[in-house]
Write a structure and sequence with these properties.
This protein has a domain of about 150 residues: 2-Layer Sandwich (Double Stranded RNA Binding Domain). The protein is about 45% helix and about 25% strand. The chain has 6 helices and 6 strands; from the N terminus they run H-H-E-H-E-E-E-H-H-E-E-H. It has a 4-stranded mixed beta sheet with strand order 1-2-3-4, with helices on one face. Strands 5-6 form a two-stranded antiparallel sheet. Strand 5 and strand 6 form a beta hairpin. The longest helix is centred in the middle third of the chain and has 34 residues. It comes from Pyruvatibacter mobilis.
């Protein structure tokens, strides 16, 4: 009897976990939804730009191409990925006699996904990954250990960038997001002040009497001066007998 109760409790717990995951709107990235299709096709339309960072930059670029476009560079890429790298080596384990036994290699990547049609960035972020290495007595062994750490960090950075770009491209193609963007644009256009197709009427400016130098001043003086300039007072003329 106790065994049956435990089995029932476990079943209910499993159902509760499944319901909780469903309530969180969990969806696989590369599922059969519209977002999943956009993630698959979008990531394959990305061209990886050159990364000027020596051997590490070349390794990061090769990893990105291998993970995003394994069939080769797209003929007509819709996006271009721009990546900038920085790295550093720090000592982790140091003995009392200043002997370094272990080091940490850190690789930081700052990247942008640029829309080739508009030239504007649609996603940008940064990622940092570490790779530990041992410090040995042999210099050759230390060089090999450092190269191995660089390759491991480069592969980890490329994996994170690929995953984030896939999520970003799937969100850009989301029907809910497109609908929300369309509504925001419609509201923005509706709230903008309407422009009249008819040009404004010119404003009349009163005329004034000529200036001492013979030029005519416009807009100066009061209404009385303007009225006298337009309609001068009558002058009495004496007639001869």
């Amino acid at each position: 009897m106790n065994k049956a109760v435990k089995l029932l409790a476990r079943s209910l717990l499993a159902l509760g976990l499944v319901a909780g995951v469903a309530a969180c709107s969990f969806r696989p990235l590369y599922g059969n939804s519209a977002e999943g299709a956009a993630a698959r096709t979008g990531i394959q339309s990305v061209e990886v730009g050159q990364i000027d960072f020596g051997r590490v930059g070349q390794h990061v670029r090769n990893e990105l191409i291998s993970q995003m476009t394994p069939r080769g560079t797209p003929a007509r890429p819709e996006f271009t990925l721009s990546v900038a790298l920085q790295d550093m080596v720090a000592d982790l384990l140091v003995q009392e006699n200043s002997t370094v036994l272990r080091r940490n290699y850190t690789l930081t990547a700052t990247y942008q996904l640029i829309d080739n049609e508009t030239g504007a960035p649609v996603f940008s972020s940064s990622v940092q990954r570490n790779a530990a290495l041992n410090r040995l007595d042999s210099e050759y062994a230390n060089v090999i250990a450092l190269r191995d750490a660089e390759e491991r960090a480069a592969a980890a950075v490329a994996t994170v960038i690929t995953q984030r770009l896939s999520i970003a491209l799937s969100e850009l193609a989301s029907p809910e997001k497109r609908r929300k963007a369309a509504l925001e644009e419609a509201n923005r256009i509706k709230a903008a002040p309407a422009r009249s197709a008819t040009p404004p009427e010119p404003v009349d400016q009163p005329l004034v009497s000529p200036a001492p130098d013979g030029t005519t001043l416009i807009g100066a003086g009061d209404d009385r001066a303007a009225s006298s300039a337009r309609f001068p007072e009558p002058v009495a003329i004496d007639s001869a007998d």
